[in-house]
User: What shape does this take?
Amino acid sequence: MTAAFIAAAAALVATAALQPLNLRLLRRFHFGVVHTLREDIDNRAFVALHARKAGLLDAGGAMGMGVAFIALLALWEPETRAAAAAIAGFGLIGLVDDVTKARRRRGGSGRDLGALPKLVMETAAGAFAGWAVYAAGTRDQTLPIVDEVAFGLWIIPVTAVAAIALSNAVNITDGLDGLAGGLLLMSMGALALAAGLTDRNEAMAMALVAIAVLLPFLYLNRHPAKIIMGDAGALGAGALLAVTGVMADQLVLLFFVSVVYLAEAASSFIQVVALRLGRRIFRIAPLHHHLEAIGWPETRITPALWLTGLASAAAGLAVSAGLGYL
Assistant: This one.
């Protein structure tokens, strides 16, 4: 437990100290937000709402995920190495997207990763993370009704699906100042508490390191934001959240702390399906942009979703305690 707090403290100091360098590098290599117009109505409405954010520094979470990777690797436990593997796999996929966007802003060529290549890469990264979790000795999970389930090798696809789903859900949620970062603090805080109460010290270390690197980022991402998380930060953080939940044997709590991310991802999926059927469910997807489009100010949406995330995390802790999982 002492090592967990030392790793988190070191990660906090390192991330805070490196932020000025992070800002200079992002400016130097043109990691700035640029909104482009396409023919679909959703995108035009989005650009109209967010034109003021053009030029914000993108990929701001990549450095924090790098520090988290080093801190978890330095602990050199099988569980923390698995978490580092998840950050590396999904963070690198996001970094490719971030770098490609930056290259285009400098006048170069290149396209974002297509949906299919990205899914293939994420499947490989998820399988790698799942294998690392299995190799670390995590084979069982506690679930309602059936109690302890021996997944064995099936823990690999379970972890992979959770990492793919949450990495993309966090990425979709990262659309307003402070939104994804604040929700991740609550999610990781709940998992850290649960892991500590159940003596899952390695899982607690993962959550504490995540909180440590998120705090300096959120200071710059709060409204009005100077940087945004970017794909590398969001995908890496979402994968780390998934692996932490599995390692802590807290799948029920993981679901509760992920309610807002899953709602955001579901709203995007529903909108895509509806538009292909010639209908429209939301003004703009995902959910936080829909709320903007119907007139909610950003400074109202973020606190409202933070409160929703806090309530769902508290409910998850209460349910887990009631089931005897804490």
User: Anything to note?
Assistant: DSSP finds 13 helices and two strands in the chain. The longest strand covers residues 140-143. The chain has a mean pLDDT of 92.
